[in-house]
Structure formats: C-alpha cells, structure tokens
Design goal:
The protein is an alpha+beta fold. The protein is about 25% helix and about 40% strand. Strand 1 and strand 2 form a beta hairpin. The longest helix is centred in the first third of the chain and has 32 residues, at about 1-35.
Length: about 140
C-alpha cells in the first residue's frame, strides 16, 4: 500500500514535466512560424496565426494588396515541426500541402492541384514549391 502512495506523486511529476516540455515546443513553433510572409516574384502574402491553445494554425493567403474578398483562409495542423494542410475534396478543394521554416524561409510545398487523394507529399508527381521571406514585424 505504501508503494502505491509513492507511485502516484511520481506519475504526477512526470506528467507535469511532459506538459511543460510540450508547451515549450509549441511556443517555439509559434515563434518560428507566426507572422507575415511574402514571395516577391508572385506578390503572394501568407499570414500565419496560432489559435489560443496552440493546437492549430489559421493561414490567410492573398496576392497583391489585401482585399477582404480576395483572401483565402486555411486551417493547418502542427506535425513534426511542420504545418500540414490536409487534402480536401468537399466544400473546399485543395491538395495536401506542407509548410516548413528552413534557413529563415518558409517553404510551402503542395501536391499537384487536382490530387485530392494523397495525404502526403507524393514525389512521384509534380510538387509545387514556393519560398517566402518573413516580413518585419
């Protein structure tokens, strides 16, 4: 019975440490991705914002000047230090995409436009790749 009482505080301590480590990782991800990004060649803007719980990301995407009617908005999920946009073929049609910050550039890669089936980057087909630079805050 005494062993049982010693075991419970140990479990609580371990769970608190893993939660803290997870939130530190989430905060680092937020610092790495959140903000405004720009591709000069295409004049394309990406604005990334994390939700309050840091469980998903809202991405606003537009070309040229920002007009309310011309902004596309997407929901991305955090997976292995990347932002993942899953393929959809219902209300919204989009291929699977991944975003990753490499050397302070946002690398945005997507499967070919009408590939709504693959939920991974399918290197057997063409992959669209766009690089963005962070705009100053």
């Amino acid at each position: 019975m005494r062993l049982y009482y010693l075991f419970i505080p140990l479990l609580l301590l371990l769970s608190v440490n893993s939660t803290v480590a997870q939130s530190e990782k989430d905060i680092l991800m937020q610092k790495m991705y959140e903000g405004s990004w720009y591709n000069k060649e295409t004049k394309r803007h990406i604005d990334i914002r994390f939700n309050e719980e840091l469980s998903y990301v809202t991405i606003n995407d537009w070309i040229g000047k920002q007009h309310i009617g011309s902004i596309d908005s997407y929901k991305a999920f955090i997976k292995e230090n990347k932002l993942i946009l899953y393929a959809e073929n219902d209300d919204h049609h989009s291929p699977y995409c991944e975003m990753e910050v490499v050397d302070q550039k946002l690398i945005y890669q997507c499967n070919e436009p009408f590939n709504f089936k693959d939920q991974f980057l399918n290197s057997k087909n063409q992959i669209d790749k766009t690089e963005f630079k962070r705009l100053k805050k």
